[in-house]
Write a structure and sequence with these properties.
The complex is a heterodimer. By secondary structure, chain A is of the alpha+beta class. Helices cover 58% and strands 7% of the residues of chain A. The C terminus of chain A is likely disordered. Classes of the chains: A alpha+beta, B mainly alpha.
């Protein structure tokens, strides 16, 4: 281009970043939280904190689940049993209730409401039904489905933002001359230059992560964004997914002849032996009690990077194996690994912690980028602003920055507080919790837009900080396993939640305190820095 | 940056717009063509071929976008896209003719 590739890319980076920045910040925050989806869900169900954590043979836990399902859901079409893991101590049995007698199926398959029960894996006793909550799944869905809107629209918005970001990162790498030097550059308390350095450091430090997470994020929904490869070969996407997942064809039917279901435990043992002793993650029983019953057993995640887990299919009446998933093809495996990298279920706690930190770096990168725009714009119009003129665009960006960056933590904390303070048995509880997320965020964003100022930054950051830092106290006072017992009993998912929220709360309070200092900045030579702002 | 753009006038801005359309729309079209062409022609099981085409298209798209802004002129940006589209278009046409 006329001004050269570097400048045109810098221009593209600035404006595309600003336009999708607030959405990216929400997506990054929710996605980072979703790494600890199971832990968040467990924390939000304090009734389950007391479940036994002694490891039991999986066959015993499965036996308990089968007994409960046979008694409770004999007529169900399908049973799903999620085996206990280090991250989810209880064994969960869920089922899809049989169709109503009139045969009318109002919603397409898979949309009907599941019922479920959680069992203590050691004793088989049903745990007191935990409060209804979306738990960590809320953040997982928020990450790409947003909320209060059609998931399809949301996925396109998030996908377009991701593609903008991918282009920004790639062009950034190509054009960034000083990438190595910037890695070691931080000039604190220098106003705009410090924000630029912070933006560069958080971006460059976790650059491999940012590149990976953006590309793999697009891969997770690529059949929506880029359906043309599949469409060239398949009449419908359903047929393709049946092929891809090695799944039982969607049109498999029961024989309508009763036959007793064989014990599940020996099948589990056989599958686990085939996977060199790896634990089983999920057991699906199709048409239990029918002559055509089948049992699909899949390996527990955490053994390999790939998202697809090997499966074995058994005849549900004889208990004999029917088939097992063969070695996947190269492209299937590639997609599985890319998908797996994005959701990081393979990782051990340490690695997941690093993913979490990289996700936080991503939040910080987006936040500092947004702030940088406002800081630069303020300097450009410093004289006019000093004369008391109003700059509508800047004011809007300032308000949205505060509302997003300081508002999202408040919303998340409000969600957790609502989880513990709303009556445990209230109807439509999950929706009420989510409503509090958006009420808190809405209020924060509105007052931020009304009065975007340094004081407002301080106020909202402090509110978020206090709400986060007090979560361990709330946990102890509302029936959860408090830090003392959680650490003593090795209940790390709950203890970890408390410790991480405490640390985040302190960090937010620290940020609010830092802002108290009078601005001894804005002396950095403006012109020079603007030239560097690539 | 915005100032220099403004000073460059409407011709320049029009160029940016043409490039953006080329990048977002044209780039998507080209990568979609590659996805379909690879899926159709790759001698592999159907699942594998469809996946390979889709994954490659996801790499083609950002590269096409960057090309549109790197090209020396907006016209060249479109010419480049057209050149890259010839092969998959022919492949798909051949397949359609054979079928």
């Amino acid at each position: 281009m006329k001004e050269g590739f570097r400048q045109s890319m810098a221009w593209l980076h600035t404006w595309s970043g600003l336009l999708v920045g607030w959405l990216l910040f929400l997506v990054f925050s929710a996605g980072t939280a979703a790494y600890f989806r199971d832990e968040i869900t467990l924390w939000m169900k304090p009734e389950l904190h007391a479940a036994a954590h002694a490891s039991v043979p999986q066959t015993a836990a499965l036996g308990h689940a089968q007994a409960l399902l046979a008694q409770r859901a004999a007529n169900a079409n399908r049973w799903f049993i999620t085996m206990p893991s280090e991250r989810e101590p209880a064994v969960r049995a869920s089922w899809m209730p049989a169709k109503k007698k009139d045969g009318a199926e109002s919603k397409p398959r898979g949309r009907r409401r599941f019922e479920s029960a959680e069992l203590d894996p050691v004793t088989g006793a049903e745990l007191s039904a935990p409060r209804a909550t979306r738990g960590g799944d809320f953040f997982y869905r928020l990450h790409f489905d947003l909320h209060y809107m059609s998931p399809l629209w949301a996925r396109w918005m998030v996908g377009i933002a991701a593609m903008f970001m991918l282009v920004a990162i790639l062009s950034g790498i190509v054009t960034h001359k000083r990438i190595f030097k910037d890695f070691f550059t931080f000039r604190p308390a220098k106003g705009q230059r410090s924000w630029l350095d912070a933006h560069n450091v958080t971006a460059v430090l976790a650059l491999p992560y940012h590149l990976m997470i953006t590309f793999t994020g697009i891969v997770t929904l690529m059949f929506l964004y880029m359906p043309w490869g599949v469409q060239a070969l398949y009449p419908s996407q359903d047929k393709f997914f049946t092929d891809l997942n090695n799944a039982l064809p969607a049109d498999a039917k029961p024989a309508r002849q009763p036959a007793p279901l064989a014990p599940l435990a020996p099948m589990l043992a056989q599958a686990s032996a085939a996977w060199e002793g790896a634990p089983v993650g999920r057991v699906t029983v199709n048409f239990p009690g029918d002559a055509n019953a089948t049992v699909l057993i899949s390996r527990q995640s955490g053994r390999a990077i790939g998202y697809d887990q090997p499966t074995m299919l058994f005849n549900g009446v004889s208990g004999r194996p029917l088939s097992s998933s063969g070695a996947p093809g190269a492209a299937t495996e590639t997609r599985s690994v890319l998908y797996g990298l994005h959701i990081a279920r393979f990782s051990n706690p340490l690695l997941r912690g690093l993913f979490f930190l990289s996700g936080l770096a991503g939040c910080a990168m987006v936040a500092t980028g947004l702030l940088l725009w406002a800081v630069k714009e303020r300097q450009k119009h410093a004289k006019a602003l000093a004369r008391g003129e109003r700059h509508v665009g800047l004011r809007l960006v300032d308000g949205l920055n505060i509302g997003a960056i300081a508002g999202v933590p408040i919303a998340m904390a409000a969600f957790f507080w609502a989880n513990r303070l709303l009556p445990a048995t209230m109807p439509e509880r999950p929706d009420a919790e989510i409503r509090w997320f958006f009420i808190a965020w809405g209020v924060a964003a509105l007052i931020a837009l009304a009065r975007p100022s340094r004081r407002m930054w301080q106020l909202l950051l402090a509110v978020g900080g206090v709400l986060f830092a007090l979560l361990p106290v709330l946990n102890a006072m509302t029936g959860g396993a408090h830090l003392g017992t959680a650490v003593a009993e090795g209940l790390w998912p709950v203890a970890g939640f408390d410790l991480v929220t405490l640390a985040l709360g302190i960090a937010l309070l620290f940020a609010a305190r830092r802002l108290q200092r009078p601005a001894a900045v804005r002396k950095a030579p403006v012109t020079q820095v603007t030239a560097e702002a690539a | 940056m915005a100032d220099t753009l403004r000073s460059s006038g409407w011709a320049y801005r029009g160029g940016v717009l043409v490039r953006a359309v080329a990048a977002i729309g044209g780039g998507y079209g080209v990568s979609a063509l590659w996805a379909a062409a690879i899926a159709t022609w790759l001698p592999a099981p159907k699942v594998e071929a469809a996946l390979t085409g889709t994954l490659i298209a996801l790499v083609v798209y950002p590269c096409a976008i960057m090309w549109c802004f790197a090209a020396r002129s907006a016209v060249r940006a479109w010419v480049g896209l057209a050149l890259v589209a010839i092969l998959p278009v022919c492949a798909l046409a051949l397949h359609g003719g054979a079928a």
